[in-house]
């Protein structure tokens, strides 16, 4: 399903009108019905898996709070000793942990099973035959639901009494295609409070939708064919120029596709007064790999931080590692558990993206880079002092951005080449087969661009420049929408019309457009 | 009801925004969309025909409207027929067209030119030609009909969830004149010229036939690459549409004959023996529904011998080929009409491959061998019993007057490695002749980029 399609427009428009009119007193019920209908419409009977996740997790969270209450009651009993209180606590922790493990096994087991089955060759006939078995948004709703379960388990907030409230959180239709991974405590009040239509918000959301569509269609989809041609070619025959060009183009395509899709989803959600969590913050302006992951797919990074990294960092073995590290390396040793935690987290992030060895390697690449840079941070600082480099200067800031971008681009090779060795061969080609007169790049462009459309590279370039300017403004804290609205009518209308025109014009190039979103199958 | 100033301003804003988009769209549509289209020209000619005057219609894609000349058939059969073929016409739209024609004409016979491509899983329908088809169908129709047809496309189960549904409102996105012809296109629109004058591509004769005079360039035309087919590729949806078309004819008492329009030998041979397998599967499917299927690619040479210069490109007849084929098609139709089977006129097994006596064309593949040169392999599209010899030549691209020089004389090996010592763009050519002949029968050239590291 494309957000830019007549059926989605119609669906959203009907929901929007009903939301602010007929259902204005029970808005959340309409959102729930709409979300479930949307899911059934796209995924049909596979809604069963979403229901299993929502029911099991909602029930487990309820049980956690019940067990907490029972424990408190037992501990309050008269004449109970401190040791007995401890024993009661332990007993209930064991019970809760058991339930937690069972529920996690069920839900992550389902996710893993689907992902693995999808990778295997489809058998003839039966449920697995059509290769479409991965339930829509299973990664996103599973991660969301598990975050709720973990929060209730940790006592961050109480469980939700009304199952249907929780079901709305899990099935919320704008997020179901490609995220972001929301948190229950951040959306709850928004879902269940009354919303009135607001003209400014409406205009802002329409502009956000347009900007998202612009990125997705005028950049990502136009570049898709070029990316495909580059990475399908035998890697041994690539020249250095093509490898570098390929990395740049893929970096643009992936960002434009994912962030464009997220902008559209945020805009649709925003039309109903629901502000979902931010998922991007100018990632290519990151100054380090760790910083990059706080700007790219922010909600996944935050999820990993809260539910994998922190719990792992406080485990006994990690504490022992820290003690050993401090003994061996002094203060630097304190960073060891964080470094190991980062490697583990990114290994999981890698597997989440795909189960091939290239994704495992890509995850490790990111994790090791972050771990090493943290471990060596004091060394870098000393080196900079010795070389009289001002680490707070603008020049050094730009250097950090370029360095991080290069590291991110190298990582993208592992996403594209299924064989890990191919990524290294491609990197080798940069130095051994340079071709810096760009004739091979020109040849690829000639093959991928339609003959009667030599304006396309200019269209993409213009689109990329516009997105870049917008990113610089955002990085400087400017509200771009307000900035545009503050301009005179001629400039304001010119910008909106240009975005609309370029977005629509991009379809002229994309043959059989609408290949879906890169992040739609997670 | 009073509208506040604030609300009024907002309504004005929305109206102005929509008006802006409408104006932009109208300007772009006027400048970019062609004066007419292949589908538009067909509909324009069809609408000139008075009701209940047609006896026979032909349905299908470009194979149909470039391969079947109704006037040749009409002369032999004494019927009045019309070619309803349109660009990339899917079986889905063939059925829609047939429904329309059955209401407007008293058609007694239908010939469906089947393109195996549309029978393939995943190829059943294509949004852009379908959008062009709907727009062409809508030209000159009342607003209600236009709206109904447009809504049918935009809310179609397949396209409604896709970007193409919205883009239907922006015709210039999918339908545009070729680069360099915008000015001519606009001038033609303003002057109200006939499509033929504005763009030959959109010309149709009054009976829907589109005559092409050019001849396929077997050396330079995009390669006839090897193709694959397995029974799993046969789409159930496409077969369902095929069945619906047969049913529709039956319901209206019309006779239907399904055919394959001749392509070059190369186009058939590239699929190999699987071509016969697919053909047999379609034949069986149709036979179970009492419908005859004749693939004229498999017609015996004593009945129809298509020459190399009977084709406009690999898969389409030119006017000479179309006339030749249409004449035989008329014979087969008459036999069918008399209750006779024409099956004996066609090959049904691999004797087809032995009957081909010419080298239709060559398909070349190249691969770079670092440090050595470029290996070129020739695959001949020819009969199974033809013995071939190959010669490999090259041309110096730096010299504008250079001619091809043979670097490996005629021999049976179809592979040769051109030794290369420096990077650059190379131009190679392979000649093929039948054993014992003095001169080549087919040639193919290839341009390869070589980097020596």
What does this protein look like?
The complex is a heterodimer of chains A (522) and B (453). Chain A has 522 residues and is mostly helical. Chain A folds into three domains: 6-192, no CATH class; 199-236 and 254-276 and 436-521, no CATH class; 314-416, no CATH class. Chain A has helices spanning 6-20, 27-43, 47-76, 82-119, 138-153, 163-171, 173-176, 184-192, 199-232, 240-271, 289-292, 298-313, 316-329, 336-353, 357-375, 377-386, 394-416, 420-432, 439-448, 456-475, 480-486, 489-509. In chain A, helix 9 (199-232) packs antiparallel against helix 10. In chain B, strands 2-1-3-4-5 form a five-stranded parallel sheet, sandwiched between helices. Chain B has a four-stranded antiparallel sheet with strand order 9-8-11-12, with no helix packed on it. In chain B, strands 6-7-10 form a three-stranded antiparallel sheet. Chain B is built from 16 helices and twelve strands. Chain B is 38% helix and 18% strand. With 453 residues, chain B is an alpha/beta fold. In chain B, helix 2 (38-46) runs parallel beside helix 6 (127-138) and helix 5 (91-104) runs parallel beside helix 12. Chain B has three domains: 1-32; 34-353, SGNH hydrolase (Rossmann fold, 3-Layer(aba) Sandwich), CATH 3.40.50.1110; 359-450, Immunoglobulins (Immunoglobulin-like, Sandwich), CATH 2.60.40. The model of chain B has no long low-confidence stretch (mean pLDDT 89). Chain B is globular and about 90 Å long. The chains are: A mainly alpha (522), B alpha/beta (453).
Which secondary structure elements does this structure contain, and how are they paired or packed?
The complex is a heterodimer of chains A (522) and B (453).
Chain A: H1 6-20, H2 27-43, H3 47-76, H4 82-119, H5 138-153, H6 163-171, H7 173-176, H8 184-192, H9 199-232, H10 240-271, H11 289-292, H12 298-313, H13 316-329, H14 336-353, H15 357-375, H16 377-386, H17 394-416, H18 420-432, H19 439-448, H20 456-475, H21 480-486, H22 489-509
Helix pairs in contact in A: 1-2, 2-6, 3-4, 3-5, 3-6, 4-5, 6-8, 9-10, 9-20, 9-22, 10-17, 10-18, 12-14, 14-15, 15-17, 17-18
Chain B: H1 5-32, H2 38-46, E1 56-59, H3 62-67, H4 70-77, E2 81-83, H5 91-104, E3 109-113, H6 127-138, H7 143-154, H8 163-167, H9 171-174, H10 182-191, H11 195-198, H12 236-251, E4 255-260, H13 265-269, H14 274-287, E5 292-295, H15 319-337, H16 351-355, E6 359-369, E7 373-382, E8 388-395, E9 405-411, E10 415-419, E11 424-434, E12 442-450
């Amino acid at each position: 399903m494309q957000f830019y399609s007549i059926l989605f427009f119609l669906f959203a428009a009907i929901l929007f009108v009903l939301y602010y009119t007929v259902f204005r007193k029970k808005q959340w019920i309409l959102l729930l019905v709409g979300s479930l209908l949307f899911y059934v419409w796209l995924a049909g009977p596979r809604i069963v898996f979403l229901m299993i996740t929502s029911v099991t997790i909602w029930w487990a969270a309820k049980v956690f709070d019940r067990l907490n209450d029972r424990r408190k009651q037992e501990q309050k009993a008269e004449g109970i000793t401190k040791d007995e209180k401890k024993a009661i606590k332990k007993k209930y922790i064991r019970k809760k942990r058991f339930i937690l493990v069972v529920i996690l096994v069920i839900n992550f087991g389902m996710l893993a099973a689907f992902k693995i089955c999808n990778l295997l060759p489809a058998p003839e006939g039966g449920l697995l035959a059509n290769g479409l078995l991965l339930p829509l948004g299973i990664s996103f709703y599973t991660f969301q639901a598990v975050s709720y379960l973990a929060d209730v388990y940790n006592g961050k907030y109480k469980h939700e009494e009304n199952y249907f409230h929780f079901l709305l959180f899990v099935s919320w239709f704008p997020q179901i295609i490609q995220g972001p991974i929301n948190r229950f405590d951040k959306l709850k009040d928004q879902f269940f409070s009354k919303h009135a239509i607001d003209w400014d918000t409406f205009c802002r959301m329409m502009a956000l939708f347009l900007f998202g569509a612009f990125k997705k269609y005028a950049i990502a989809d136009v570049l898709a064919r070029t990316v495909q041609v580059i990475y399908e070619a035998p890697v041994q025959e690539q020249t250095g120029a093509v490898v570098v060009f390929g990395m740049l183009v893929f970096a643009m395509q992936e960002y434009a596709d994912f962030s464009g899709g997220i902008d559209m989803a945020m805009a649709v959600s925003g039309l109903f007064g629901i502000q979902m969590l931010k998922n991007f913050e100018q990632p290519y302006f990151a100054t380090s790999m760790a910083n990059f992951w706080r700007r790219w797919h922010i909600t996944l990074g935050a999820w990993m931080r809260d539910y994998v990294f922190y719990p792992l960092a406080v485990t006994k073995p990690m504490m022992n590692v820290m003690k050993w590290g401090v003994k061996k390396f002094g203060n630097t040793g304190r960073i060891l558990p964080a470094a190991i935690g980062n490697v583990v987290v990114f290994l999981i992030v890698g597997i989440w993206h795909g189960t091939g060895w290239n994704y495992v390697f890509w995850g490790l690449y990111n994790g090791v880079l972050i771990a090493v840079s943290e471990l060596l941070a004091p060394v870098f600082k000393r080196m900079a002092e010795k070389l009289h480099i001002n680490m707070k200067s603008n020049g050094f800031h730009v250097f950090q951005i370029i360095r991080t971008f290069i590291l991110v681009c190298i990582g993208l090779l592992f996403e594209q080449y299924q064989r890990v060795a191919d990524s290294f061969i491609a990197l080798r080609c940069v130095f051994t087969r340079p071709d810096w007169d760009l004739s091979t790049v020109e040849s690829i462009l000639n093959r991928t661009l339609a003959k009667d459309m030599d304006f396309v590279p200019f269209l993409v370039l213009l689109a990329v420049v516009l997105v870049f300017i917008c990113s610089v403004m955002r990085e400087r804290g400017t509200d771009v929408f307000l900035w545009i609205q503050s301009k005179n009518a001629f400039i304001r209308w010119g910008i909106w019309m240009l975005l609309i025109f370029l977005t629509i014009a991009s379809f002229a190039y994309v043959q059989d457009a609408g290949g879906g979103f890169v992040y739609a199958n997670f | 009801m009073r509208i506040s100033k604030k609300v009024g301003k907002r309504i004005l804003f929305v109206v102005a925004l929509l008006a802006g988009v409408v104006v932009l769209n109208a300007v772009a549509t006027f400048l970019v969309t062609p004066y007419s289209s292949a589908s538009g020209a067909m509909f324009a000619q069809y609408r000139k025909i008075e009701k209940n005057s047609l006896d026979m219609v032909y349905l299908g894609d470009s194979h149909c409207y470039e391969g079947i000349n109704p006037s040749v058939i009409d002369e032999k059969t004494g019927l009045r027929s019309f070619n309803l073929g349109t660009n990339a016409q899917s079986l889905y739209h063939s059925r829609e067209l047939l429904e329309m024609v059955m209401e407007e004409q008293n058609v007694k016979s239908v010939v469906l030119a089947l393109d195996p491509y549309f029978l393939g899983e995943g190829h059943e329908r294509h949004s852009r030609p379908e959008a062009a088809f709907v727009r062409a169908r809508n030209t000159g129709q009342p607003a209600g009909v236009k709206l109904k047809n447009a809504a049918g496309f935009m809310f179609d189960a397949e396209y409604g969830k896709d970007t193409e549904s919205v883009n239907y409102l922006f015709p210039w996105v999918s339908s545009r004149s070729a680069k360099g012809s915008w000015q001519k296109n606009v001038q033609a629109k303003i002057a109200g010229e006939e499509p033929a004058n504005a763009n030959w591509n959109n010309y149709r004769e009054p009976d829907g036939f589109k005559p092409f005079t050019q001849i396929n360039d077997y050396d330079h035309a995009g390669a006839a690459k090897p193709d694959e087919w397995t029974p799993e590729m046969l789409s159930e949806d496409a077969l369902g549409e095929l069945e619906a078309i047969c049913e529709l004819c039956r319901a209206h008492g019309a006779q239907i004959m399904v055919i394959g329009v001749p392509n070059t030998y190369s186009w058939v041979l590239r699929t190999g023996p699987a071509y016969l397998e697919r053909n047999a599967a379609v034949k069986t499917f149709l036979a179970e529904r009492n419908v005859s299927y004749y693939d004229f690619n498999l017609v015996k040479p004593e009945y129809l011998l298509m020459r190399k210069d009977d084709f406009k490109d690999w898969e389409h007849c030119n006017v000479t080929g179309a006339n030749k084929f249409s004449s035989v098609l008329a014979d087969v139709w008459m036999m069918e009409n008399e209750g006779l089977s024409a099956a004996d006129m066609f090959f049904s097994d691999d004797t087809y491959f032995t009957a081909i006596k010419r080298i239709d064309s060559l398909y070349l593949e190249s691969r770079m061998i670092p440090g050595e040169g470029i290996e070129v392999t020739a695959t001949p599209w020819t009969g199974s019993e033809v013995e071939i010899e190959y010669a490999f030549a090259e041309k110096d691209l730096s010299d504008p007057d250079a001619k091809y020089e043979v670097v490996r004389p005629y021999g049976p090996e179809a592979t040769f490695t051109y030794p290369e010592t420096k990077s650059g763009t190379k131009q190679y050519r392979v000649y093929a002749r039948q054993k014992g002949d003095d001169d080549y029968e087919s040639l193919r050239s290839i341009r390869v980029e070589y980097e020596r590291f």
